[in-house]
């Protein structure tokens, strides 16, 4: 078996996107969310959970 994970910790610490990635900043993040293909907040994609489940099933069968 192979374990495939998304590095959420690392995604939020990209110096190209976040000016001070190791420092907490309560201000809103960047205007563009490169790593959030489903949107963010209350207006995120309604099919997000289904798509995530499909991705998991695909990876399990590869």
Automatic annotation (TrEMBL):
E.C. designation(s): 1.14.15.6
Localization: Mitochondrion inner membrane
Pathway(s) of this molecule: Lipid metabolism; C21-steroid hormone metabolism
Pfam families per record: p450
InterPro entries from the UniProt entry: CYP11_CYP27_families, Cyt_P450, Cyt_P450_B, Cyt_P450_CS, Cyt_P450_sf
Membrane topology, from the record: Peripheral membrane protein
Gene Ontology molecular-function annotations: cholesterol monooxygenase (side-chain-cleaving) activity; heme binding; iron ion binding
Reaction equations catalysed: 6 reduced [adrenodoxin] + cholesterol + 3 O2 + 6 H(+) = 4-methylpentanal + pregnenolone + 6 oxidized [adrenodoxin] + 4 H2O
Known cofactor(s): heme
GO terms for biological process, alphabetical: C21-steroid hormone biosynthetic process; cellular response to peptide hormone stimulus; cholesterol metabolic process; cortisol metabolic process; glucocorticoid biosynthetic process
UniProt keyword Lipid metabolism present: yes
Keywords: Cholesterol metabolism, Heme, Iron, Lipid metabolism, Membrane, Metal-binding, Mitochondrion, Mitochondrion inner membrane, Monooxygenase, Oxidoreductase, Steroid metabolism, Steroidogenesis, Sterol metabolism, Transit peptide
Similarity remark: Belongs to the cytochrome P450 family.
Official protein name in the record: Cholesterol side-chain cleavage enzyme, mitochondrial
Organism ancestry: Eukaryota, Metazoa, Chordata, Craniata, Vertebrata
């Amino acid at each position: 078996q192979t374990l495939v994970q998304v590095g959420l910790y690392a995604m939020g610490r990209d110096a190209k996107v976040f000016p001070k990635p190791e420092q907490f900043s309560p201000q809103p993040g960047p205007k563009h969310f490169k790593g959030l293909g489903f949107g963010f907040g209350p207006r995120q994609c309604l099919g997000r959970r289904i798509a995530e489940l499909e991705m998991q099933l695909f990876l399990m069968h590869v």
